[in-house]
Design a protein that fits this description.
Blueprint lengths: L15 H19 L4 H5 L9 H20 L10 H5 L23 H17 L1 H7 L1 H27 L26 E3 L3 E5 L15 E5 L2 E4 L5 H9 L11 H10 L7 E4 L2 E6 L2 E4 L11 H10 L7 H8 L10 E2 L2 E2 L1 H4 L13 E7 L25 E4 L16 E3 L8 E2 L3 E3 L1
Parallel strand pairs: 10-13
Antiparallel strand pairs: 1-4, 2-3, 4-14, 5-6, 6-7, 8-9, 10-11, 11-12
């Protein structure tokens, strides 16, 4: 029987045929995202926080091979018994592994070999799916959601890599929507959120990670959230008003970070002539003043909120306010390939989901009653509950169907290579 200690919760799910189709669809999207890349593109690593695209493609296959095929398919032989050392990420229970900052040194295996590895894993998984769906459906669902997380990481890591190239290369050409600009966003309206005693966490309505459980009560004082995200144009006002030079606005650690790293604007911004440009997966583009600001750290978000006379929402406030809003949005696959990352984040309307990950003021800590499961999969979330902050809502690079109101993303306060932005809150 499942308990609150399980990293995921076993539920009655789709038929083996439907699960196989979902498996094939998600795995195909990963390869579609990497299709424009050369072997060199897929091998390079731009910083320790990022991983090469080739490593992402192999690691998610290692996950299925290790926790599903190796442990549940009798007679299965590893594709290459040297590769677990290369593609294990952080699972201490699975033994030693290649150092994360040195993943870009893995010029071998090649991208072609990694794709061959994926093909073998996929063929074995699909052949065994009738049995696997009965025996370990929960692990397959965990693996698929894990792969969707790495699809987003593949895109954000690739964006950082290409931004480091003086040529400013594009993964995909800019679509027509990239030039459809809104002159001014609508004025911010404040929407009162639920107050009093509210339920937070997974209510057993579908897949959930262990850090979303158990469901519990939280008391909220009266508050309101902005009905839209902070925009690039508003961020320019913060810059013009000396926001990056005003120590009074910054947390102590944030002020040290700003001075040490000489931070003067969001990541991927640069001045060009009399205006600003922003790097995207379609290369350098004129800054869209009405689009949500993105690639900002927790420190920047907190400083801006104080400058604006507001604050960051707590994760409980954000989740309660999200309510029953449809969390659809993010990456999808059609005949033209992966389409959503091309336009990146530019909607400014009220939706809570799918534009940028929104910083909250809440530390990433366990919910009351949380216990990590024994074994390797118990290392999935629990051991990272230190020194990080929660983000909510998903981004333009989050696969469609992957995000939900209870979802808890988390990053360190100085990190900003993900699609991170903010929505303001205030007390009532």
């Amino acid at each position: 029987m499942a308990t609150i200690t399980d990293p995921i919760r076993q539920r009655t799910g789709p038929s083996p045929e439907a699960l196989a189709q979902r498996y094939a669809r998600i795995r195909a999207l990963s390869e579609a995202l990497a299709a424009p890349l050369s072997d060199a593109d897929a091998t390079a690593q731009s910083m320790p926080d990022a991983s090469p695209a080739k490593w992402h493609l192999a690691h998610v296959s290692w996950f299925f091979e290790t926790f599903v095929l190796r442990d549940h398919v009798r007679g299965y032989r590893l594709f290459d018994d040297r590769w677990p050392y290369l593609f294990n990420s952080y699972y201490e229970a699975e033994g030693p592994r290649h150092a994360r900052p040195q993943r870009g040194l893995l010029t071998r295996p090649s991208l072609e070999e990694v794709l061959a590895y994926r093909a073998v894993v996929d063929g074995t998984m699909l052949d065994a799916m009738p049995m696997l769906a009965e025996r370990c459906r929960d692990l397959i669902e965990l693996g698929l959601n894990h792969e969707q997380q790495h699809q987003e990481l593949l895109l954000t890591d690739l964006k950082h890599l290409f931004a480091c190239n003086p040529l400013g290369p594009a993964v995909w050409p800019a679509g027509p929507e990239a030039h459809a600009r809104v002159d001014e966003p609508p004025a911010v309206r404040w929407r009162e959120g639920p107050s009093g005693l509210v339920e937070i966490g997974d209510r057993d309505e579908g897949f959930a990670f262990d850090n979303e459980r158990p469901v519990h009560k939280a008391h909220l004082s009266p508050f309101a959230l902005a009905d839209r995200l902070v925009t690039n144009g508003e961020w320019l006002c913060f810059i013009a008003d000396g926001g990056y030079a005003a120590a009074r606005l910054w947390l102590s650690d944030g002020w040290v970070w700003v001075q040490r790293d000489e931070v003067e604007c969001p990541l991927y911004w640069r001045q060009a002539g009399n205006g600003w440009e922003q790097f995207s997966l379609s290369g350098w583009q004129p800054l869209d003043l009405a689009a949500p600001v993105t690639h900002i750290s927790f420190y920047e978000a907190d400083a801006f909120a104080g400058w604006a006379g507001a604050r960051l929402p707590t994760e409980q406030e954000w989740e309660a306010a999200a309510g029953l809003e449809d969390p659809s949005g993010g990456v999808q696959l059609d005949e033209a390939g992966p389409v959503a990352p091309r336009s990146e984040a530019r909607e400014v309307a009220a939706p809570m989901f799918g534009n940028v990950w929104q910083w909250t003021g809440s530390a990433y800590r366990p919910y009351p009653g949380f216990r990590a499961a024994p074994g390797a999969v118990g290392e999935y979330n629990g051991k990272f509950m230190s020194g990080q902050f929660v983000l909510k809502g998903g981004s333009c690079a989050t696969p469609r169907g992957h995000v939900r109101a209870t979802y808890r993303n988390f990053f360190y306060p100085q990190q900003r290579w993900q699609f991170t932005g903010l929505r303001l809150a205030r007390d009532l």
